[in-house]
Each structure stands twice: as C-alpha cells, then as structure tokens.
Design brief:
The chain has a single domain, classed as Up-down Bundle (Rhomboid-like fold), CATH 1.20.1540.10. The longest helix is centred in the middle third of the chain and has 32 residues. The protein contains nine helices and two strands. A hairpin with a 3-residue loop joins strand 1 and strand 2. 38% of the residues are buried. It is globular. It is mostly helical and 221 residues long. Strands 1-2 form a two-stranded antiparallel ribbon.
C-alpha cells in the first residue's frame, strides 16, 4: 500500500494540452492516411484473438468523427487544466491513463462475455467485433476527480443550469446507468460508468481519499 501511495514530486508542464494535441493529431493522421480505426480501437477480435496488445492504450486517441473528438477534448480542456494544476502533471497523467486503460479493459471483458453468450446460443459473436474508441472513460474519470478536488464548484449544464460538481457526477452516473438499457445508440455507457468507478478506486487506493467524505464535509454547513 505504501508503494501505491508514493507521491510524485509536484511539477506542472501542461500535460492536458499535450494530450489534446496528440489526440487531435492522431485523428487527423488516421483520417488522412485512411487507416482502419479497428486496428487501433479496442475490440475482442483484435486484442484477445489477434494479440493487438497496444489497443487498450491507443483506443484513447481514436475518435469516430469530429463531433466525438471535439466534445471529448473540450471537456478535457475545461476540467483537465484545473485538475492538473491541483494534482501535478505526473499524477494527472497517471490518473488519465490508468482509468482510461482500465475502463477499456473492463468494457472489453463485457464484450467478450457477451460474445461467448452469443456463441453458446448458436449465434455469430457480434460483440467480438464491437470496437471501443475515444477517451470518454478517462474523461469521465477526470470529471469525477474534478468534483473531488473542487466539490463546491458549479457546472453550468447547457450553459444555463448550475449544478454542484458532485451532483453533476451523480446525474451523469444515473443517466449512463439508465442508458445501458437502451439499444438506440452505440455510446459505450459502461465505459463511462467504469471511468467513474475506477476514479473512485484510484482516490481510495492511490491517494487515500474517500470522495464521499470530501463531499459530505464540503456541504456539511
């Protein structure tokens, strides 16, 4: 446990903007070269059966279209810079990639089990070919961490509805949970929820911080 909680020496070198630049560059490069995103996205067929071991990392830099990329990077810009200044750049990078990779692995485990279930019922395993792309799992973890470090901050939903940061996390969690029961879109809601869950564990195991206590203390008076 002492090893897990060994702190980094504080440094700030704007890793948030670096991640954004690399992610945008990756999107433009993949589009320009016409590279199949399934190679770098995370899917059972590639990761489990073809041993594309880079996928749990590279899927964070792959986005489906400009809208997907824009809103993910906007959220990272808004919340990431303040959080990085509070955490330090090294801790921020560790949080971003640990939660992002673990969220992806959790999702791919679910897809693998669902694909096995399809096989057992005599169907083609469609979930083996579902490709997970985007930094949403890591960004949801950043939103969660922001709410822990700045619990009294107000987030304006659609620019008009003010919500305390912890309430925003709760609302998003409920929305993502309920959205799991809808097959109307292809958003990986379980990855978003996993981002919240792994951020929670990160604070407890790595930082020795219990988010609920932080939020209770922030609104005790």
């Amino acid at each position: 446990m002492n090893f897990l909680r060994k702190p980094f020496r504080y440094q700030y070198f704007n890793a948030t903007l670096t991640i954004i630049v690399i992610t945008v560059a990756a999107h433009l490069l993949l589009s320009y070269l016409g590279i199949n995103r399934l190679i770098f996205g995370l899917n059972v067929a590639g990761f489990v059966y073809n041993h594309f071991i880079w996928q749990p990392f590279t899927y964070l830099f792959v986005h489906g279209d400009f809208t997907h990329l824009f809103f993910n990077m906007l959220a990272l810009l808004i919340f990431g810079i303040q959080l990085e200044k509070a955490l330090g750049s090294k801790e921020f990078i560790l949080l971003y990639f640990v939660t992002g990779v673990l969220s992806g692995l959790f999702s791919i485990l679910i897809y693998f089990l669902l694909g096995k279930m399809e096989l057992s019922h005599g169907f083609q395993p469609s979930f083996f070919y579902v490709s997970l792309i985007g930094a949403s799992g890591a960004i949801y973890a950043i939103l969660f961490a922001f709410a822990v470090f700045f619990p009294r901050s107000k987030i304006f939903i659609w620019g008009i509805i003010p919500l305390p940061a912890p309430v925003m996390v709760l609302v998003y969690a409920v929305i993502e949970f309920l959205s799991q029961f809808s097959m109307a879109n292809n958003v990986a809601h379980m990855t978003h929820l996993a981002g919240f869950a792994f951020a929670w564990l990160y604070f407890i195991l790595r930082m020795g911080i219990h988010p609920l206590r932080i939020w209770k203390d922030a609104y005790r008076n």
